[in-house]
Write a structure and sequence with these properties.
heterodimer, A: about 110 residues, mainly alpha, 4 helices, B: about 600 residues, alpha+beta, Penicillin-binding protein 2a (Domain 2), Beta-lactamase, five-stranded mixed sheet, five-stranded antiparallel sheet, 23 helices, about 20% strand, elongated, disordered N terminus
């Protein structure tokens, strides 16, 4: 072999070779891109899972809070308690039948 | 082995060797290196194939152990609400503290071994620190430290409850103590905001959140639901990164009762006062909506606090209104009149001769307190004449009379399907003596519960239409059937109206503004020596008479004060409960004593109320 023929430029040789098979190059690039996308979407999926779990935890905590609040509400609005409060503090009483006025709408 | 051939090559081609012999000289080395490298890769490949294809299970399992978790979905028992949506029972999550005694013993041993192996390890300080934490745990739980230690000292055990139903804040503190072998688990606790008012109806749950009384027990499955879970993959920080499996349990359902908590609270208050005031053993009150058979209120006194049941005796927990049967006495006298009217042996304006105020039936005597002479049916009910009802009861065939008792529900359960409900006591026999039939007419020889009585009065109130009572709100309309003619019930209600009017036996049962029909019942309680000096006071009635809406039964058991007639004890309670219930339900007054205002439109209505 002559020195000229052995002393070729590897890079240009590779490029020339690649340009002869553009479809394969394209496929290779597509493969890389899709692999990247798979990684990305798996990552997003995990982030979403984490987010939904956090939301579910929030929901549970809100549910617990709601239960405490209705407990407090029903303890405070217990009918006998309200009646005792309005009679002592607001000086109210159940209307006697003589004080009642029935309004009939024709 | 190739050395000889190399030497001969050198000799033959001495000049050429300089250029060409070097690669062939190293050829065997090249093969060895390539083979070795290939072997390495083949080895790796085989190993990889072995791990991936032949025996992948082990590593999958190890991976799953680190990342796969099954988590229970939170499960809270359904609510119990009243007809207006007010909560009667609410579950709130709490924590249970439990210990693993084996893990505790293990950690102590580990510390001692570490101290032996490593002299720099300060065992004393570690023990001091540990003791301080246990002391803190005992203090926050309000337990004795020695008792607590004794509880978790048996290293054979793997699970011991330290304390149950601990609040979230306390649980957080315990978690921060970071004691080895002390863990927390979720559970929930039931709260009853209405307390003792609705305790008998709602019932309660035990510490494991299983219903053991009342509606809580009857509808336990419905309220409890079943645990759902989800299988997840977690990352290093414990966050869920993948939801693998989601198993939906049966969601706990809420239950809506027919109880109106406003009426319930009022009835309880009045009943409790009455039971205390008349020094009674117990009392029950029931309010039923006659047009639907829905129980609006059902209370007993004495009651109990379902939120704290320590030291509550069993008799307070019993739902007396449905479990305890008493002889109803005069309160079922309207049935004898109804039978006679229905059969036709008497008319609404018939006159019955009750003189001389007593009569012999077999070997027994039926008598009135005084000789009332010739009286009409209204007088019989108003004066509660035993003679009158006996004569009316004996004027119809016995099957007809018994059918009447059966049809109004005095011999069967009410249909409300409540826990421990009694169908009363009634001995059906093939032969009835006249005296037995007569005593049946004034409420002896048969025992009924307050709820059965309420059912009977709701039938009277609804013009003779029978329907099962209900305590849980029904979505479909209930079955109903006519058991008494509308005409007969109407005239009997009008007769019963006289009871609360002037000269009646229960003037105190009158509700101003409304026409009320009712009947007292004062019966002696039977004991082993016949009838004793204990009384049961009953007042049952319906209102308003022009268009009955409510049936109310008040039962005062064994009043020990000076007042022991139903007209003096049960009747006033009836009046208060009935008046307030009618008012709360906005039932228009039907008596003439109330001023009435008619307006033609909503505009004038606001003006009128502003002016008024």
């Amino acid at each position: 072999m002559s020195a000229l023929s052995t002393n070729f430029n590897l890079f240009s040789f590779v490029v020339a070779d690649l340009t002869r098979h553009p479809v394969r190059v394209l496929l290779f690039l597509a493969l890389l891109v899709s692999a990247g996308l798979v990684i990305l979407s798996a990552h997003h999926n995990r982030q979403m899972s984490i987010a939904i779990e956090r939301l579910m935890q929030d929901k549970d905590m809100l549910d617990v809070e709601w239960r405490h609040l209705i407990l407090e509400q029903s303890a405070l609005t217990e009918h006998n308690r309200i009646e005792a409060l309005v009679t002592s503090q607001l000086n109210m009483h159940r209307p006697l039948p003589s004080e009642e006025v029935v309004v009939r709408i024709k | 082995m190739s050395r000889g051939s190399d030497n001969s090559k050198n000799k033959n081609n001495a000049m050429q060797a300089k250029v060409n012999s070097a690669p062939s000289l190293l050829h065997w080395r090249f093969v060895v290196v390539v083979t070795a490298i290939l072997l390495v890769f083949v080895g790796l490949g085989i190993r990889a194939a072995y791990i991936q294809v032949v025996a992948p299970d082990l590593l999958i399992k190890r991976g799953d152990n680190r990342t796969l978790r099954t988590r229970d979905n939170p499960l809270h028992r359904g609510l119990i609400i009243d007809r207006n949506g007010q909560q009667l029972a609410v579950s709130v999550p709490v924590r249970a503290i439990w210990a693993d005694p084996k893990a505790i013993a293990q950690s102590i041993q580990d510390a001692q071994r570490k101290a032996q192996e490593d002299p720099s390890f300060d065992l004393k300080a570690k023990q001091r620190e540990n003791k301080k934490r246990w002391q803190a745990l005992a203090e926050v739980l309000g337990q004795n430290l020695d008792k607590l230690k004794a509880k978790v000292s048996n290293p054979e055990k793997r699970f011991v409850y330290v304390q149950r139903q601990v609040s979230a804040a306390m649980a957080e503190y315990v978690a921060q103590l970071k004691l080895t072998g002390i863990y927390l688990r979720d559970e929930s606790r039931r709260y009853y905001p209405s307390g003792e008012v609705s305790a008998h109806v709602v019932g309660f749950t035990n510490v494991d959140d299983t219903g053991i009384e009342g509606v809580e027990k009857l509808y336990n499955q419905w309220l409890a639901g079943t645990q759902g879970s989800r299988k997840i993959r977690r990352d290093a920080k414990g966050r869920m990164v993948e939801l693998i499996e989601f198993e939906e349990g049966n969601k706990p359902q809420d239950i809506q009762l027919t109880i109106d908590q406003r009426i319930q609270a009022l009835a309880y208050k009045e009943l409790k006062q009455a039971v205390q005031y008349y020094k009674a053993t117990s009392g029950s009150a029931i309010v039923v909506a006659v047009n639907s058979g829905e129980i609006l209120a059902l209370v007993n006194s004495p009651s109990f606090n379902p939120n704290n049941r320590s030291g509550v005796s069993a008799h307070r927990i019993r739902n007396r209104a449905v479990t305890d049967a008493y002889e109803p006495g005069s309160s079922i006298k309207p049935l004898a009149v109804l039978s006679a009217l229905e059969f036709g042996s008497a008319k609404a304006d018939s006159i019955i001769d009750t003189s001389p105020g007593w009569m012999h039936l077999g070997g027994n005597i039926v008598k009135d307190t005084v000789n009332r002479g010739k009286i009409n049916l209204t007088e019989i009910i108003r004066k509660s004449s035993n003679m009158g009802t006996s004569k009316l009861a004996l004027s119809v065939p016995k099957e007809f009379l018994l059918d009447m008792y059966y049809n109004v529900g005095l011999m069967s359960d009410s249909g409300a399907n409540m826990l421990g409900e009694s169908s009363g006591i009634f001995n059906d026999r093939s032969r009835w003596s006249d005296f037995e039939l007569a005593s049946l007419s004034f409420g002896y020889g048969i025992s009924v519960t307050a709820l059965q009585l309420a059912k009977m009065y709701s039938i009277l109130g609804d013009g003779g239409i029978k329907r099962p009572l209900s305590i849980v709100k029904q979505t479909e309309p209930v079955q109903s059937e006519r058991v008494i003619s509308a005409q007969a019930t109407k005239s009997v209600l009008q007769m019963m109206e006289s009871v609360v009017n002037q000269d009646g036996s229960a003037v105190k049962a009158a509700v101003p503004g409304y026409r009320v029909a009712g009947k007292t019942g004062t019966s002696r309680k039977a004991n082993k020596n016949g009838y004793g000096e204990e009384y049961v006071n009953i007042f049952a009635g319906v209102a308003p008479v022009s268009d009955p809406q409510l049936a109310v039964v008040i039962l005062i058991n064994e009043p020990k004060g000076e007042l022991y007639y139903a007209g003096q004890t049960a009747a006033p309670v009836f009046a208060k409960v009935m008046a307030a219930s009618l008012q709360m339900l906005n039932v228009p007054p039907d008596d003439k004593t109330v001023s009435s205002l008619a307006v033609s439109s909503v505009d004038t209505l606001t003006e009128a109320t502003n002016a008024g």
